[in-house]
Write a structure and sequence with these properties.
108 residues; mainly alpha
Amino acid sequence: MIKAKLFYKILVVLNNLLACFFLGLFFLGASNNNGEGAPMITEQQALFKQAIYGIVVSLFFSAITFLLGVIFRKKMSSDWKYLTRAFLLQFFTLIIVYVVIGLFMYLK
């Protein structure tokens, strides 16, 4: 039981680190900065793309954490209420991390 909890927590931490990496990855390549003649996009379009990307990545990695919880649910004796709260907590935390990364990149 202890080993299952520890393994679950390690997987969740690795999942969150990977999520933070992918959230920060979007800001490495901006479509307006390449010199290959790509069509320029407006600030509204760029903001919309960034918002959609942040939401999708946050949902994806939160869903992975939820699935990990479902897999380890019987071994850790956690209920569905706990899994739902963990999903929502991680989703909103990843959104906040994405906003902080975005503010850092724009204010830099």
